[in-house]
Amino acid sequence: MEQRVKKKPTPTSARRLSRELIVETALAQIDRSGAQGLSMRSLAQELGVEAMSLYRYVHGKEDLLEGVVALLMGDLTSSLDEELAEHWQGFLQTAAHQVRRIAIEHPKAFPLVATRHPAAPWLRPPLRSVEVVNTFLSALLGHGFTDAQAVDAYRSFSSFLLGQLLLESAVRGAETGPVEEPLDEGGATIPEGDGQLSLGVAPEVLRLRPLLSEDRSDEEFEVSLEVLLDRLSQQLSQ
User: Fold this and answer.
1) Where are the domains of the chain?
2) pLDDT at res. 169
3) 21, 148 in Cβ contact below 8 A?
4) Which residues are within 8 A (CB) of 66 and not within 5 positions of it... i.e. 6 or more apart?
5) Which residue in 24, 83, 188, 195 is a FRET match for 68, CA 20 to 30 A apart?
6) Per-residue model confidence as pLDDT tens digits over 194-212
7) Contact 163, 169 (CB under 8 A)
8) pTM higher than 0.90, yes or no?
9) pLDDT tens, position by position, 108-131
10) Using CA atoms, how far apart are residues 37 and 203, in angstroms rounded to an integer?
């Protein structure tokens, strides 16, 4: 009787190859080795497939990294609900701790969230998702902030998170420089990103776009510096 030779199961035999599986595997690789070590070839090898088969689901490394960022930001979006916080300070504390949780759980991936181009030029990392920014602005406006106050809070809050959490990520071994490999591999675009999302689903972001688009970096730097100096002066006088 002829004996059949069983094929060696591949890592993807239990789960069908999909964009979701590819992005999740890419995030796991980044968690281990950083974004610099990620390649389509290494990803395909881990999934047990040919590299070319990945291009049915992702358009290249640029698209792949955008998928990783979208995965992390989706986690943030699902954890924020302005109705859960009775006070605006509670909402901001929740938001800050949720972003920090992502930075702690994925320190080598967090620089992607913090440094890659945002969904729209008037948004800032790490709160780069249109949906997250809309939730943020809606929560503050609902607690009595004016338009200008809400946008100022968004700017200050995102700057604080960016500086603090990039530093924490670097301490935990993250590479904070740009990915060296060219990111246009595969003629990538940014499908499924917030950049393709209609602002009709983010009414506050759309309404406040003029304020969000203003370049006030000089003023923000000076204000932040003054706050730091005031804090140090208070500590010295105690």
Assistant:
1) 19-227
2) 86
3) no
4) 116, 188, 190, 192, 193
5) 83
6) 444 566 778 999 899 999 9
7) no
8) no
9) 999 898 877 766 777 888 887 888
10) 39
Q: Answer yes or no: is pLDDT of 46 > 90.
A: yes
Mapping DSSP onto H, E and C, the string for the chain reads CCCCCCCCCCCCCCCCCCHHHHHHHHHHHHHHHCHHHCCHHHHHHHHCCCHHHHCCCCCCHHHHHHHHHHHHHHHHHHHCCHHHCCCHHHHHHHHHHHHHHHHHHCCCCHHHHHHCCCCCCCCCCCCCCHHHHHHHHHHHHHCCCCHHHHHHHHHHHHHHHHHHHHHHHHHCCCCCCCCCCCCCCCCCCCCCCHHHCCHHHCHHHHHCHHHHHCCCHHHHHHHHHHHHHHHHHHHHHC
Residue type, 11: P
- Closest among 12, 47, 1, 10 to 26, alpha carbons compared: 47
Structure tokens at 106: 């994925």
Are the beta carbons of 81 and 91 closer than 8 angstroms?
A: no
Residue 14 to residues 4, 48, 237, Cα–Cα distance (Å) = 21, 12, 64
Smallest CA-to-CA distance from 152 within 83, 79, 78, 92 is with 92
Give the separation between CA 136 and CA 133, rounded to whole angstroms: 5
Domain 19-227 has CATH 3.40.190.290: no
213 φ/ψ sector (left φ>0, alpha ψ -120 to 50, else beta): alpha
Identify which of 179, 52, 194, 26 has the alpha carbon closest to the alpha carbon of residue 112: 179
CB atoms within 10 A of CB 238: 4
